[in-house]
Structure formats: structure tokens, C-alpha cells
Write a structure and sequence with these properties.
This protein folds into two domains: 117 residues, Pyruvate kinase, C-terminal domain (Pyruvate Kinase, Chain: A, domain 1, 3-Layer(aba) Sandwich), CATH 3.40.1380.20; 162 residues, DNA integrity scanning protein, DisA, N-terminal domain (YojJ-like (1, 3-Layer(aba) Sandwich), CATH 3.40.1700.10. Helix content is 33%, strand content 24%. The protein contains ten helices and 13 strands. The chain has a seven-stranded mixed beta sheet with strand order 7-9-8-6-10-11-12, with helices on both faces. A hairpin with a 6-residue loop joins strand 10 and strand 11. The longest helix has 17 residues. The radius of gyration is 21 Å and the shape is elongated.
Length: 289
């Protein structure tokens, strides 16, 4: 039995012993490794350097984390296996692919084979998501965050776009904002305004090209798009380099009992604001299906 086979067998036993919620595989031979695992525990494949897959496969474009002059031959000397697995676990959790339990990871790249064990409860992003979800429906938060990640990663028709979403405290937010274009959601049925329904995301991405922000109520229905926030950002402190959209988004989260999510037009980075502070920042180039 090869070293890899021993590692895979040990990981399978360990996952059962720990009552793990999922097994995540990161390897160019992930499909073959998956066939070796005989367990009822869900197995998710993490793919590195792009590619396509089926079902619950994960995609991680780690090349985006490195300088362009680093080739594939030296790639795994520059990015740690722990970092790779952390990225996979965090984004998979946001997409609802894994439960809030212990995750067993198998990383097999070349002659390097290792087992990585992570407890979801100990990952900072997961803790922050839990804190945000205490004041807002998690399914709504997750849907808007996933949509924002899609926009940050894909843009629209090959063009980068920036936008923002304000979730909750809707009446207050509407009183502190005004339309800069006709509201494209005015008069539409709830089912067509439900941001939790991915079938509506293409329409949202189209309207994201408009100036202004999306206002989403606590139930996940879009109330308005193309909305300009009339807030004072004077007392909001953000890192240098962030523009007016981020300042306004942070400010509304401070003035209202709302969660605000901004997508940077230049980098695609997604920032989540609460109480005027940036509580989560996600690089959308790390993504899963």
C-alpha cells in the first residue's frame, strides 16, 4: 500500500472517530482518492488551478493569491496546505456545503500527503458569520453574500462592477436614502424579488450595473435598487483606498440596525459591515460551486 493510500485510509478512520461533518480532498488525483473512501460522511472535492466538476465539487483558484511570475511547478512550495484547506472550508461553509462540525481534510500533491483537521467553531470567519446571523436571518445573509461573491468574481459581461446591499431595518434605511433612478423592483411580485432564489440573481447582476445600492428586507425580498444613501460618513474609519461606496455602506450600518455588503469595483473584494465596522472581507477569487 502506498503512502497516499495509508493517509487516505487513516483519514477515513479518523473522520468516523471524530464524527466529522465532511471530508474535503485537495489533490490533482482527487477523483481517484474519493473512490477509495468508503464512508457515509459527505466527501467534497477541492480543485486547484481551475477545472470543472460535478455536484458538490469545490473550486479554488489559488493562482490568484500569488505573483504572476510564479509557475505551477513551484506553486505548492509557496502556499501552505493549511492555507489551502482553510480557504476551502471557509467558502464551503458560506455556501452551506458543510455543517458546523469537525472537518477532516486530505491534501495529496506530488509526494506530499497530509491530513488536516479543522473545527468549524474555531475558524474566525465562521465565528463572525455566526455573530452576524444573530441579528439577521442566516439564509438571507448567506444568499446576499454568495451573490456578492459572484458579482465580485465575474462582474457582468466581462466588465468589473461594484455594488452594495443593505439588509434589514428597511423603513429606516429608506428614510435615509433616495432613488437616483427609477426603482426597477417597484410593483413586482415577491417571488421575483426574492434574493434567496438564485433564479433571480441574473436580474440582480444586471441592475448591479446601475449607480446606487440594493435595499433588502429581513425576509430577503429586494425593496429597491438604484438607491443613494443620505448618510454622514464623517465618523466612519476605513482603510485608505476605499471609495465612497464603502464609506456610505459602512455608515448606513452604523446609523441603522442593518448589515451592509459592498463589492469593490477595482478588486472585486467583498466587505461586510456592521455597526460601521468591516467585520468580514472575502476575496471572491476563492470560490466554490
Amino acid at each position: 500500500m502506498s503512502i497516499r493510500d495509508e493517509v487516505v485510509a487513516s483519514a477515513s478512520v479518523l473522520a468516523r472517530t471524530l464524527d466529522a461533518g465532511s471530508i474535503i480532498i485537495i489533490s490533482p488525483e482527487a477523483t481517484a482518492i474519493r473512490k477509495q473512501i468508503d464512508t457515509a460522511i459527505p466527501v467534497i472535492i477541492a480543485r486547484v488551478l481551475g477545472g470543472r466538476g460535478d455536484g458538490d465539487d469545490i473550486f479554488i483558484d489559488i493562482m490568484s493569491k500569488l505573483p504572476k511570475n510564479i509557475g505551477k511547478s513551484s506553486l505548492f512550495l509557496k502556499v501552505s496546505r493549511i492555507e489551502l484547506m482553510s480557504e476551502a472550508v471557509e467558502v464551503a461553509y458560506i455556501r452551506g456545503k458543510i455543517p458546523k462540525k469537525i472537518i477532516v481534510g486530505i491534501v495529496s500533491i506530488g509526494d506530499i500527503n497530509s491530513i488536516v483537521v479543522m473545527d468549524i467553531n474555531d475558524i474566525p470567519l465562521i465565528q463572525k458569520m455566526a455573530e452576524l446571523a444573530s441579528g439577521i436571518d442566516y439564509t438571507v445573509l448567506k444568499a446576499v453574500l454568495n451573490l456578492a461573491i459572484d458579482i465580485g468574481r465575474e462582474g457582468r459581461e466581462g466588465k468589473k462592477i461594484g455594488t452594495a446591499f443593505v439588509i434589514g431595518d428597511t423603513e429606516h434605511v429608506l428614510n435615509m436614502s433616495h432613488q437616483i433612478v427609477l426603482n426597477p423592483y417597484e410593483g413586482h411580485k415577491k417571488k421575483d424579488r426574492d434574493i434567496k432564489d438564485e433564479k433571480n440573481w441574473e436580474t440582480v447582476k444586471e441592475f448591479a450595473q446601475l449607480d446606487g445600492m440594493f435595499i433588502v428586507d429581513m425576509a430577503g425580498y429586494i425593496v429597491a435598487a438604484g438607491r443613494y444613501l443620505d448618510v454622514n460618513a464623517r465618523n466612519v474609519e476605513l482603510p485608505s483606498g476605499l471609495g465612497g461606496r464603502h464609506l456610505a455602506t459602512a455608515a448606513i450600518s452604523k446609523c441603522a440596525k442593518a448589515i451592509a455588503i459592498a463589492v469593490s469595483e477595482s478588486s472585486g473584494v467583498v466587505s461586510v459591515y456592521k455597526d460601521g465596522k468591516d467585520v468580514i472581507t472575502i476575496d471572491p477569487r476563492v470560490s466554490i460551486t
